[in-house]
Amino acid sequence: MSADVAVAQLTEIQAKEELAHLALVMGDANRAYYLGDAAMTDGEFDALKQRNAKIESRFPHLKRDDSPSEQIGATPDGGFGKITHAVRMLSLSNAFDDEDVQEFDASIVKFLGVKSDISYTAEPKIDGLSLSLRYENGTLIHAATRGDGAIGENVTENAKTIEDIPHQIENAPEILEVRGEVYMSHADFAALNARQTERGGKIFSNPRNAAAGSLRQLDASITKSRPLKFFAYAWGELSMPLADTQLGAIEALVQFGFSINPLTKLCATPQELVAHYNDIEKQRATLGYDIDGVVYKVNDLALQSRLGFRSTTPRWAIAHKFPAELAWTQLEGIDIQVGRTGALSPVARLSPVTVGGVVVSNATLHNQDYIEGRDSKGGEIRDGKDIRIGDWVQVYRAGDVIPKIADVDVSKRDGTQTKFQFPTECPECGCEAIREDGDAVHRCTGGMTCPAQAIEKLKHFVSRGAFDIDGLGAKQVEQFFKDGWVKEPSEIFTLQDRFGFGLQQLKNREGWGAKSAQKLFDAIEDKKNIGLARLIYGLGIRHVGENSATLLASNYGNWDDFENAMTQAEIGSGAQWDDLMAIDGIGTVLATSIITAFHQEAERACIDRLVAHLTIAPAEAVASDSPVTGKTVVFSGSLEKMTRAEAKTRAESLGAKVSGSVSAKTDILVAGPGAGSKARKAAELDIEVLDEDGWLALIDAK
Ligand SMILES: NC(=O)c1ccc[n+]([C@@H]2O[C@H](COP(=O)([O-])OP(=O)(O)OC[C@H]3O[C@@H](n4cnc5c(N)ncnc54)[C@H](O)[C@@H]3O)[C@@H](O)[C@H]2O)c1
Ligand SMILES: [Zn+2]
C-alpha cells in the first residue's frame, strides 16, 4: 500500500487503490468500534480518515460510494426495535489545533460570502453516547440512539429511567425532539466497576463504554440501577422554532426542564473560541466526567441552515479535540500473545498508572521493529529510542483500545534495564516462529496444530459478524476447545452426534442445564443455513474482514463459484487472479492471502469439513435511492437561494455527479439567469433543464 507516499505525489491508480483499501479497513474498524471491540486507536482511525479525505479532495472523481467519509456510527443491533430519525443524527468534523479553528471560521465566512464577524457557541464535547428524545404534545413518545445516523435503536424504556430526562413537558411545542449526550460521572463509573468486580460481572474500560452498555440493556431495570446522566445540546424535528440562535434554543431547553452544560459560552471571534477551549482544558481533570474536546457552533440559526450539511457532518459546527492523555510509568515485562493468524504480538506489562481517569497496566508493542524504535519502513519512531524491560515509558490512551507507548526516558536508565530478545519459537506450541520478508511480525508456523491459533480461529468463527451462534461465545468455545470437544469450526456442527455426547454431558457442566443445552443445539442447527458473506468472513482468513467478505460474496454470488475460482487460482497470474484483482477494493495482499488459504492442505481440509455441514445462501444485490443518484448535473448562470459551492455540495451529497460543462453525458442542467451558451447547448442535446426552484423541488421531493 502507498500509505507512506505523500498525497500530492500519488498517481491516479495508486490513489484509487488506496481509497479502496481504506474503505475496507476503516469499514471493518468502524464496525468493530461500535460493537465495543475497537481494532485500532482513535488516533489511528482519525489519521486514516484524514488521509482518505485528503486523497478524495485531490481526486474527487475517485470518491467511492462506500467512502469512509460518508459513514456515521454503525447499523443498529438486532436486539432493539428500530426507529427512523425524523431528522438525521450526524457526526462532527474535527479540529486538532488552533490553525484548524481559524480555517473553520474562514471557510464559513467564505461559504456565506459575509463581511461581518460570525459568533459561535463553545461547549464541552461530552464523551458519552448521543440520544434523541421525541415529545409529542409534551409527552415523551420515544428515545433512540444514533445508530447509523438514519436509523437508531429504540431505548425508550431505558431512557425513562434517567433522572435528567423528563417524561412530561409543560408548554412544549406539539413536536419536540431533544438531543443530547448520555454519560456517566467518574465517581459513578468507579462505583459501578467496584460493584461489578464484587459480583464477577463485566468490567467497563471507561465511562463512555459503561454509559453505552448501561443504556443499551434489553432489561430496563438494569439501566435503572445504573446512574446515568443527560446533557441536552441540540434538537431534531420541531413543530415550531425554539429561538433564532443556538444559545437561545439551548436556553429554551432549560425552560423545558433539561440540563445543559454550564461551560457553554458565546464567543465573538475564533480567538475567543480558542481561549475558552484552553480554559475548559484546564478544568478537564476536575469536571468529574469525561470530555474529549470542545464543540463550536455557529450561533445564528438562519446562517446554520444556509450552511447546511456535508454527507455526515454539519458545515456549521466543529469539534476541537483535546490531545491524547499521557502518563509515565515503568515497564515490568513483555508478554507474547499469539493471534488467529499466528502473529506473535508483544504486549507491555506496566506498573499500573492512571491515564485520563482510567488505570492502565498494559500497552501494545506491535512487533520487534516497534520495540527497537523503527517503523515498518525502517524509519525512526520515538526518535529511534528502543524500549527495554525496566524502562520508564510514557503511555497514552486514545479511545478505549489498548494503550500505547509514546516515549522512553533514557535518562532514567541505570544499567538494570534489559533488551528484549524476540522469541524464535511460538510460546504456545513451541513451533518455529518466523518473520518473512516484507512482514513486520513473527508468525507461528504451527497452523491449526497451534492451540492459540485454533482457539482464536474458533472465537472468530462464532463472533457476531461471522456465525454468531446464540449461547456459543468466545468463553464457551474456549472451554470446549480445552475439553477437547471442539477443535475446529466443523466440529461445532457435529458436537451433538459425535461421542454420542449431548444433553447429558453438557448438563453436568457448570452453567449449563437441560434447557440451555437444548437451546445451544438448536442454535447450532439453525446456523447450518448461512449467508455466503458470513461464511467467507467466518473462515478467518488473514486480511479478510467483513467488508471484503461482503465484496467477495457479491462478486462471486455463490459458494461453488467462489470455491472453484479460489481452487483454480494462481497467485499473480491467470484468469482467476485477474478476476479477483478486477474487484474494486481487492488488492494483491488480500488476493494472495485468500488463494494461499485455499491451497494450504490443512487449512483447505478444514474448510471442506466445515462446508460439508452447511447450506450456503447466495449473496444479494444492493440498491440506492434519491431522485438524482447517479445523475450528472451542471449548474449554470446565477443562483439566488444558494451559492455555487452550496449547490454543488448538496447535489453531491444526494449522489449526483456535478460537472462543469454540458455534454451528451449530462442529465440535468440547472440554469439561472445568464446561463447563455450552456442553456442553448442543453436544448440542442435535448437535456432536461430546470430553474433553481425546479431543482429545489426535485431534490426536496424526497
Ligand atoms: N478506534 C476505532 O477503530 C474507531 C472507529 C470508528 C470511530 N472511532 C472514533 O469515534 C469518533 C468518531 O465518532 P463519532 O462519529 O461519534 O464522532 P465524534 O464522537 O467525534 O463526534 C460526534 C458526536 O459528539 C457528541 N457530542 C458530545 N458533546 C456534544 C456537543 N456539545 N454538541 C454536539 N455533539 C456532541 C455527539 O454524540 C455526536 O454524535 C472518533 O473519535 C473516532 O476516532 C474510532
Ligand atoms: Zn503456535
Automatic annotation (TrEMBL):
Entry's EC annotation: 6.5.1.2
Pfam families: BRCT, DNA_ligase_aden, DNA_ligase_ZBD, HHH_2, OB_DNA_ligase
Cellular component aspect of the GO annotation: cytosol
Domain of life: Bacteria
Annotated PANTHER family: CHROMOSOME TRANSMISSION FIDELITY FACTOR 18, DNA LIGASE
Function: DNA ligase that catalyzes the formation of phosphodiester linkages between 5'-phosphoryl and 3'-hydroxyl groups in double-stranded DNA using NAD as a coenzyme and as the energy source for the reaction. It is essential for DNA replication and repair of damaged DNA.
Protein name: DNA ligase
Species, as recorded: Pacificibacter maritimus
High-level lineage: Bacteria, Pseudomonadati, Pseudomonadota, Alphaproteobacteria, Rhodobacterales
